[in-house]
Amino acid sequence: MAVTPAAVRTAAVRTATAGAHPHWLLKPIGFNVNQCGFAPRSTTAYRHGVPRHRNELTSHCHTSQLWERTCGLLDSVLHVVLPRHRPLGLARRWRAVPVYRPLVDLSTMEERHVILTYRLDRATIQELCAQLEPELMSPIRQPTGIPPLVQVLSVLHFLASGSFQTTVAISSGMSQPMFSKVLSRVLSALMKYMRSYIVFPEVEDLATVKGDFYTLGHIPNIIGAIDGTHVALVPPRGSEQVYRNRKSYHSMNVQVVCLADQYISHVNAKFPGSVHDAYIMRNSSIPYVMGQLQRHRVWLIGDSGYPNLSWLLTPVRNPRTRAEERYNEAHGRTRRVIERTFGLLKARFRCLHMTGGSLMYSPKKVCHIIVACCMLHNLALRRQVPFLQEDGPDGGVVAAVEPVESEEEEDDGDNTDNRDRVILQYFQ
């Protein structure tokens, strides 16, 4: 029996009078068009995170025109009977699922271009992606999510370039809001493996570490160089003065301990820029760790911004003897490794450098970004990935050195016995 416009109009009037809606009138709202011979064909083009839908309906029976007219007539009738009725547009019956098509193919890129863009080589990126894949997989297993490899590559590009999220998102083939979620997801995944990438030397490794430091300045028993550096950020509203450092810009004060090969063994990035280096050191885990290692007679080396402790050697402020001058020279050659570490870290990941601008995130997220960069820095050193730069000489391999200014001088304190003993024994 064919449905005529007159029958539909009569049924709508009777329904409005009776105050009840028969089931056959509301049937087309949830009606499956496939039962009438229609097969939806949907394609989605995903470009820069903006899906474009194109729904086409092909007719397989002679009732297609009648069905379209009937739906249009029902729309007009139900608009009077049900003012809040949603139109029965055929394009609304199917929800087009956006399928992500990556714009970056790591297998087709040259190895040098991979290192320049992501600061890691191809094999290291694949190893890192395999480690983080369980954390980055979508809870709903479907092919519409962004692959873990693309998430890792986009975050590495962001950390290496120090660019805006929109620029990195466009180059990765996603929207800026989606990249913001990806950044948080990858950073959270990296934080779970922090203790696997940033490790203080074990007792069995102390002899090797001391030997490496001794070749730098001929000071014995050194297992680390400690210093602080500043990473610029946009401060939270109402706390601008807390984050303003002595150079009159807002930052996070990051404490780092490194080895002789520029490997970062400790990082503390949770204090604002106005906090002194010595205060950060006292409120970190370093005093406890070094206290546990005191029976092995090992020391850290720091600048004059730190107090002279039983496990921390600082330079002599006003040397009076030739031995003290020789000690200061050896101290400077040994401590210079922390300056080279900061220079390489900020040159490899431009988001930490002033040329990359200020990080426009909350202090907690800035802390995660700093720690993630230190982890990737150690990973690059462990896998012996060279640091390449576009304008560097000899194929782009450069040695980045950034001078680090010392904080204002601290009082020597009462513990100068170790330093005097070192000067007397090795520099007299």
Automatic annotation (TrEMBL):
<dbReference type="InterPro" id="IPR045249">
    <property type="entry name" value="HARBI1-like"/>
</dbReference>
<feature type="domain" description="DDE Tnp4">
    <location>
        <begin position="226"/>
        <end position="378"/>
    </location>
</feature>
<protein>
    <recommendedName>
        <fullName>Putative nuclease HARBI1</fullName>
    </recommendedName>
</protein>
<dbReference type="InterPro" id="IPR026103">
    <property type="entry name" value="HARBI1_animal"/>
</dbReference>
<keyword id="KW-0378">Hydrolase</keyword>
<dbReference type="GO" id="GO:0046872">
    <property type="term" value="F:metal ion binding"/>
</dbReference>
<dbReference type="InterPro" id="IPR027806">
    <property type="entry name" value="HARBI1_dom"/>
</dbReference>
<keyword id="KW-0540">Nuclease</keyword>
<dbReference type="GO" id="GO:0004518">
    <property type="term" value="F:nuclease activity"/>
</dbReference>
<comment type="similarity">
    <text>Belongs to the HARBI1 family.</text>
</comment>
<keyword id="KW-0963">Cytoplasm</keyword>
<dbReference type="GO" id="GO:0005737">
    <property type="term" value="C:cytoplasm"/>
</dbReference>
<comment type="function">
    <text>Transposase-derived protein that may have nuclease activity. Does not have transposase activity.</text>
</comment>
<keyword id="KW-0539">Nucleus</keyword>
<dbReference type="GO" id="GO:0016787">
    <property type="term" value="F:hydrolase activity"/>
</dbReference>
<keyword id="KW-0479">Metal-binding</keyword>
<dbReference type="Pfam" id="PF13359">
    <property type="entry name" value="DDE_Tnp_4"/>
</dbReference>
<dbReference type="GO" id="GO:0005634">
    <property type="term" value="C:nucleus"/>
</dbReference>
